[in-house]
Amino acid sequence: MLKASNNLIKDLKKQKRENSSLLFLDNIKIINDAISNGLRPKLIVVQNEKLNKWDNICPSFLVESKVIEQLSDCKTPQGVLCVAEYPQHVDFQKPKTNFLVIDGLQDPGNVGTLIRTAVACKFNQIYLLDSVKPTNSKLVRSSVGTIFYAKITSCTREEFALHAKQWRLPLMKADMNGQNLFSCRFDDIVGVVVGNEGQGVSQTISQICTKAISLPMEKNVESLNAAVSGGVIMYHIYTQNNNI
To answer: What is the mean pLDDT of residues 111-131?
Structure first.
């Protein structure tokens, strides 16, 4: 293992600031999940040689702990940091299973939680429309590595709407004025659309939705957290699809 040069450290800090297509993974489990799902790291830095388990995969370098603290967004980093190029999915393949559409969500914690739930419920294709980037470190952490098990396409609302119309996708948006979720049957492939908590699903996407569904709740509560709402909806569909 080589000791990282000052030039390498400076370059990593610059890439961290400027290159939004790079992932900076600072969790050992998430690094292993990413690699096991085909992600090829550019390099890995560790603060202790005993932490290095990836010598046969990519170049690895020894750095001081303060370097990892500067490169990590975690308050208590694990002494390891993996730098990798995020594999962008821009080919717009028609979904073959239930899928999730996240419309205009900027909170990385909510988006990461939605991705984690989607993978758990076999919503294998996820579209991020004008939302937080999938390379956001908080998003990756809150997804607990499940981001690497799903096919995620980051695009604009207009780009998605164009393909959704061509494919005649069945889109169902979460809306307070929609049909009660628990009175619906889901026998075919469906796309669940979750919008911004304050503004809901955008007009661009609402226009191509074929159904609106709501969650029953007490009158003194206006709405639920976006990740909670999306989770309840996806789990209900999952249990119906699998006769659970």
So the answer is: 96
Q: How far apart are CA 164 and CA 221, in angstroms?
A: 33
E strand segments, 17-115: 22-25, 41-46, 60-62, 80-85, 99-103
The per-residue pLDDT for range 35-49, each reduced to its tens digit, is 988 888 999 999 988
> Which residue's entry shows tokens 């717009």?
92
- For the chain, the structural domain boundaries read 2-85, 99-241
* Other residues' Cβ atoms within 10 Å of the Cβ of residue 116: 20
Nearest to 235 by CA among 130, 129, 119: 119
Residue 63 tokens read as 């750095």
Dihedral sign from CA coordinates of 87, 88, 94, 98: positive
Query: What span, in angstroms and rounded, lies between the C-alpha atoms of 173 and 213?
Result: 6
Name the pairing type of β-strands 171-180 and 151-155. unpaired
- pTM score of the predicted model: 0.89
One of 3.40.190.10, 3.20.20.70, 3.40.1280.10, 3.90.420.10 is the CATH number of 99-241, namely: 3.40.1280.10
> Which 3-state string (H, E, C) describes 43-63?
EEEECCHHHCCCCCCCCEEEC
Alpha carbon separation from 217 to 162, 181, 232 (Å, rounded)? 34, 11, 13
Q: What order of strands is seen across the sheet that includes strand 191-195? A: 151-155, 125-129, 99-103, 191-195, 171-180, 211-214
Q: What's the gap between Cα 140 and its chain centre?
A: 7
**Res 168: pLDDT:** 95
Please name every residue paired with 200 in a beta bridge, in sequence order, or none if there are none: 196
